[in-house]
Amino acid sequence: MSGGVYAPLSPREPFTRLLTCITESNARFVLVHHFTHDRIICSCRLIDINQIISRTQAHDDTLWCIDDVHVTPDYISHIVFTSGSTGTPKAVRLRHRNFVSYIRSYIIQPTDVILNHTSVTFDAHFEEIAGTLMMGGQLVLLSPHGNLDMSIFCSTISRHQVTYLGGVPSFFLMLTEFMAIVHEKNCLKTLQCISSGGESLLSTVAQDLLSCVNEHCRFYNYYGPAECTEGAIEYRVTGVEGAQKYVPIGRPMPNVHVYLLDEYGQPVIPGMQQGEIVIGGEFFL
């Protein structure tokens, strides 16, 4: 509504990283609340959202300013930070058209009930929140630290009839191990779609997770760096990938072009050469 750029910060991150992220994003304002007000020390102006939320009515001039904001598809929508190869946070600026094109090609449906459990330090949290609301789905917020307690996590899925669950393979491994220990598999039966990404997905983890859901649940493995607006290549997991150690990354999503090029920028010969993945399309900067 305001035309600003969203750049999430986690109060659990070290102060030096927070300061680097604020500097890299050229932030003018930092939104805080009563738990984080003393956590941020920088030259930016701090805006306490508790004071804003506590107001019973907004001023007419404030509403007029919001209505007068014009945002084009090429404006920056949000900024995500990656550690990169050096460990220094790298600001990746994504435009409105990038994110909208990605969500339109993604698997979230208007009928989905989606559990928001991803930390703001990962770009997938924006997909869970903004993507769900854009598609008209229902968003369920997990209780604080609920992703560290598998009993709370599983009961939340069951209680709210969650239909979509996204996560990284290491989290799914922890989830399936917990369910094997407690001998409880019915809590995931409401899931209609699972999305995995961010790490290589072991075939054994995929098989274990599929054994915990209903037979109609779709399972996708995604690949793509943050510059690709989260994902660019997808693979529908079938559960028969046992002969391979890892689940394949699949084929390009709609509106995405993927090339395998050699060191001279020429297409490699299939089955004879190794190359570098080059990705293009509407999701990108």
Across the major sheet, the strand order is 7-8-9-10-11
How many DSSP helices? 8
What spatial form do the alpha-carbon principal axes imply? globular
* Helicity range: 25-40%
How would you describe this protein?
This protein has 285 residues and is of the alpha/beta class. The protein has 2 domains: 1-99, 3-Layer(aba) Sandwich (Rossmann fold); 106-254, ANL, N-terminal domain (Rossmann fold). It has helices at 15-24, 49-53, 60-67, 96-105, 124-135, 150-159, 169-182, 203-210; strands at residues 29-32, 45-48, 76-82, 90-95, 113-116, 138-141, 164-167, 193-196, 218-223, 233-236, 251-252, 256-261, 276-281. The strands form 5 sheets. The protein has a 5-stranded mixed sheet with strand order 7-8-9-10-11. A two-stranded parallel ribbon has the order 1-2. Strand 7, helix 7 (169-182) and strand 8 (193-196) form a beta-alpha-beta unit. Helix 4 packs across helix 5 and helix 7 packs across helix 8. The chain is globular. The two termini are 22 Å apart.
